[in-house]
UniProtKB/TrEMBL annotation:
This is Venom protease. Residues 64-255 form the Peptidase S1 domain. One of its GO terms (molecular function) is serine-type endopeptidase activity. InterPro entries: Peptidase_S1_PA (IPR009003), Peptidase_S1_PA_chymotrypsin (IPR043504), Trypsin_dom (IPR001254). GO terms for biological process: proteolysis. It comes from the Eukaryota. The gene is SP4_9. PANTHER family: ACROSIN-RELATED, HYALIN. Keywords: Disulfide bond, Hydrolase, Protease.
Length: 255
């Protein structure tokens, strides 16, 4: 099932740029990742494109075993972020996962960027172990301190909707890392994927209110009808609408 977290206010060190039209983009073709173009109209032509297969969404390792440790290359778009303490500015705290969408842009959750004690400094890709540099294939890049947070999330973070943000890298990752494909086709937008399976990957908590995982994990979860999801979250005052996709319900598997 969809999980929720408490959010905080934006720390003064950061500048959040809001683009209310950033939810509509043109997808198709390939580019070098220097620009992430947005469109106010689905029919408006753009000069730069988000990548499409085979330039995105291709795992370098096709094995999928729910709830097990991932392997190098299995999810080549998986990113984690290094945060520094606002006061000491010393060692990184690695937390939160994201996805590469061009060689220079990543998508993550907005609430992760709004911590009052730390500021985002770098992004790392190709890592299996969260707090280790033993991964030979990983790369690290400085991030632009101006990030884009969905305007609706900033207006009302307590509703826990539109919890999404774009983080831009100062320099692109190398071509060995493949971005994920974004589903902008109309049939994908309207599909609730009932009775399909979703795969969740990340370094999240392995139990409710538990510690985060030190290794990249993945799990296969069945998509759940939104009506069932609404019933489950009714007592928790979480509003589930058509913009949500709920997954889970199997014992011992969640995200």
């Amino acid at each position: 099932m969809e999980t929720t977290r408490r959010t905080t206010t934006l720390p003064p060190r950061h500048k959040a740029t809001v683009n209310a039209n950033a939810v509509k983009t043109r997808c198709g073709g390939s580019n070098d990742g220097d620009n992430l173009m947005v469109s106010q109209d689905d029919d408006q032509e753009t000069l730069q494109f988000l990548p499409s297969p085979p330039d995105c969404g291709i795992s370098l390792n096709n094995r999928v075993v729910g709830g097990t440790q991932s392997t190098v290359g299995k999810w080549p778009w998986m990113v984690t972020y290094g945060f520094r303490d606002k006061q000491t500015r010393k060692e990184f705290v690695w937390m939160c996962g994201g996805s590469l969408v061009t060689q220079k842009h990543t998508i993550t959750v907005a609430h992760c960027l709004l911590t009052p004690t730390h500021y985002i400094d770098v992004a790392r890709i190709g890592a299996i172990f969260l707090n280790s540099t033993l991964d030979e294939t990983n790369e690290q890049r400085k991030v632009n301190k101006t990030f884009v947070i969905h305007s609706e999330y900033l207006r009302n973070p307590r509703r826990r909707k539109h919890d999404i943000a774009i983080v831009t890298l100062m320099e692109p990752f190398s071509k060995q890392f493949k971005p994920i494909c974004l589903p902008f086709q109309r049939d994908m937008k309207n599909n609730q994927f009932i009775r399909e399976n979703a795969i969740v990957a990340g370094w999240g908590a392995t139990s409710y209110d538990g510690f985060i995982s030190e290794v990249l994990l993945d799990v296969k979860l069945p998509i759940v009808n939104n009506e069932k999801c609404r019933e489950f979250y009714a007592s928790k005052r979480v509003d589930i609408d058509s913009n949500h996709i709920c997954a889970g319900g199997e014992a011992g598997k969640d995200s």
